[in-house]
Amino acid sequence: MHSPALPRADLARLDTGLDAALQHKIDNKTKPPGALGRLEALALQLGRLQNTLSPQVSAPHMLVFAGDHGAARAGVSAYPQEVTWQMVENFLAGGAAINVFARQLGWTLQVVDAGVAHDFGPRPGLVDAKIAAGTANYLEGPAMRPDQCQAALARGAALARQAAAAGSNLLACGEMGIGNTASASLLTHYLAPAPLELCIGRGTGLDDNGLMRKKDLLGAAVARYPGATDPLSILAHFGGFEITMMVGAMLAAAEAKMLIVADGFIVTAALLVAARLQPALPDYCVFAHRSGEPGHQLQLDALGARPLLDLGLRLGEGTGAALALPLIQAAANFLEQMASFESAGVAEKT
Ligand SMILES: O=C(O)c1ccc[n+]([C@@H]2O[C@H](COP(=O)([O-])O)[C@@H](O)[C@H]2O)c1
Ligand SMILES: Cc1cc2nc[nH]c2cc1C
């Protein structure tokens, strides 16, 4: 599927021209070489991305995309579909885990209705980008029409461009959508690619019977759509609107040279789609954490990614991305603020 909503140009790999100077700056800080571990690689990545020896994290922006899934009614989740809109209300009231972590960081969230099956009316703090009241059920046909897929990609891209225009150079993505681990499993199966069975987990907490049912249903969905390889067609077939909007946001964020902070299983499914469209995309990403959802590791392997944290989180909402933000800020800060051996008068290695 061709996408008029997305940039046509190939996304460039990050320029490594400053690597030697960045590494020299990192190595001259008052610490043994390599002693700041993964933070040193993060500092190098930030320097490459911003093409400077003094990278900074400016106005980090978090988008939390919410959407409903037609397949949720068939029983792929431990929770009823209504939880999606109820949790959006919780986000708006400031009572969800992501609100707590965002407050701790002094961070504001932008909550986006990408396609929730509920009429919120005009609400302060909620971006109305509703494509439809939930996707169609992919057990019966495509989750969305091609024009809906394009509209979702375009809306996501516009939100990332707006954040960049307002001075942000870091985009963190989060999501909420009952049934969206099923969509993420299907996308992972086709795009990692990986055996379907290994891509399916308990999501919000299915018991053994529920997991068996989810595997049966998703097996039937794949049987209806054999041999697909085109990433946008697969995305449109299995949804959801929140995942599609994240794909658009990620591609536009990378184009604007923002650092993209990925969260868990569903956000990384969107990233898998985006990386199939723009293979250089992982250069622009930090993988915040390893989700407790087992298919996440398959996605990370497919992307050659190593997450920063491993806390057993499986909540979504962007919680892992929020928890990783201080580490990214620490990487920029040590590079900017630490003394060098010379400036501090500390003797170097003998
Ligand atoms: O981020 C993750 O890795 C993650 C893993 C499992 C579940 N979730 C969240 O749980 C919801 C989807 O779970 P489910 O079982 O309804 O497919 C959705 O709102 C996600 O944000 C998120
Ligand atoms: C309560 C609840 C909160 C969530 N946050 C993200 N996904 C979620 C799923 C449930 C069920």
From TrEMBL:
Keyword Repeat: no
Active site: E317 (proton acceptor)
Pathway noted in the entry: Nucleoside biosynthesis; alpha-ribazole biosynthesis; alpha-ribazole from 5,6-dimethylbenzimidazole: step 1/2
SUPFAM superfamilies named among the record's database cross-references: Nicotinate mononucleotide:5,6-dimethylbenzimidazole phosphoribosyltransferase (CobT)
Transmembrane segments: none
Keywords, in A-Z order: Cobalamin biosynthesis, Glycosyltransferase, Transferase
Gene Ontology MF annotations: nicotinate-nucleotide-dimethylbenzimidazole phosphoribosyltransferase activity
EC number, as in UniProt: 2.4.2.21
Gene3D superfamilies reported for this sequence: 1.10.1610.10, 3.40.50.10210
Known catalytic reactions: 5,6-dimethylbenzimidazole + nicotinate beta-D-ribonucleotide = alpha-ribazole 5'-phosphate + nicotinate + H(+)
Domain of life: Bacteria
Any Pfam family hit: DBI_PRT
CDD domains reported in the protein's UniProt record: DMB-PRT_CobT (cd02439)
InterPro entries, sorted: Nict_dMeBzImd_PRibTrfase (IPR003200), Nict_dMeBzImd_PRibTrfase_bact (IPR017846), Nict_dMeBzImd_PRibTrfase_N (IPR023195), Nict_dMeBzImd_PRibTrfase_sf (IPR036087)
Homology family: Belongs to the CobT family.
Stated role: Catalyzes the synthesis of alpha-ribazole-5'-phosphate from nicotinate mononucleotide (NAMN) and 5,6-dimethylbenzimidazole (DMB).
Name listed for the protein in its UniProt record: Nicotinate-nucleotide--dimethylbenzimidazole phosphoribosyltransferase
Organism, as annotated: Denitratisoma oestradiolicum
Lineage, top ranks: Bacteria, Pseudomonadati, Pseudomonadota, Betaproteobacteria, Nitrosomonadales
UniProt gene name: cobT
